[in-house]
Amino acid sequence: MAAAAPLANAVSSAGVLSGKFPHGTPIEWMQGPLIGKGSFARVYYGVNLKSKEIMAVKQVDKPMRERMVDALHQEIALLEDLQHDNIVRYLGFEAGEKTINVFLEYVSGGSASSLLAKCGRFDEPLCCNLVEQILSGLEYLHERCIIHRDIKGANILIDEDGVVKISDFGISKKNEYKMAYRYNSRMSLQGSVYWMAPEVIKSKGYSAKVDIWSLGCVVLEMLTGTHPWRQLDEMQTMWRLGRGNAPEIPDDLSDLAKDFLAQCLTVDAEQRPTASQLLMHPWI
Question: What UniProt keywords are attached to this protein's entry (predicted)?
Fold first, then answer.
């Protein structure tokens, strides 16, 4: 795998640690260099010293605030039950003296946003291929009443074979009504503003349709090379969304692409299609 070389070059100063995979199987693993950083977690390369498998290790420092502990437990509880080709694979976790480490499948190609930064906008055939895979993952999640709540280019990983993996379930939530597309008034304001649906801003509740809006924003991101509302700051974007505005759809796209985007970015969530319906769209 292409990622093994940078890991091998960097592990000499890293420690050998013991962890557990699902079902309590102990492993020996080695921590490599930092590959990403979020608001309360870091992600490192890791290698299983027995199988030589490369992993992504999400590491959180102790002690954590109670809210952060709950969020991490919720993420693990969701991930351990998910098995789908287009969702990043959960491998296990360990709780050490100073950190909690969550072991995840390592996706070699990086995120859609990082590839866009390196290569520029995607053409429509490539975008269609990726979007079909994202929709397949979302359909699987929504069938299990799980709302991702942070679909964006940075959380869409692509391996070296072009296989999409939806990642980062840190703010994902299971709809307590056992129906993903049923409106839930108890949902809170969560997500990344430029990919956020109008109903999230209004703080009156929402359903898994928010992931469909965010997917539309990811399609715009892929086809234009930048996120929606790029000329606005976050507060201006929230104001626009709160007034029921959708981001502009470029004129230079095919008619089918524009129709697909218009459906994803339907302001009325009740009229917005589901993942299963969008998989039947002629653009896909």
Answer: ATP-binding, Kinase, Magnesium, Metal-binding, Nucleotide-binding, Serine/threonine-protein kinase, Transferase
The answer on whether 101 is annotated among ligand-binding residues is: no
58 annotated binding-site participant:
yes
- 254 is in which domain, residue-wise? 112-278
Asked which of 105, 123, 153 is the last residue of a domain, the reply is: 105
* Shared-domain flag, residues 260 and 231: yes
Write down the pTM of the prediction.
0.86
Mind listing the pLDDT tens digit for each residue in 153-173? 999 999 999 999 999 998 888
CA atoms within 13 A on the CB side of 175: 25
Tally of domains within the chain: 2
Residue 167, Cβ neighbours under 10 Å: how many?
22
Look at residue 283 and tell me if it is in a domain.
no
Check the annotation: does 48 bind a ligand: no
d(CA 243, CA 267): 10
Comparing 48-62, 107-121, 165-179, 204-218, which segment has the lowest mean pLDDT?
Answer: 165-179
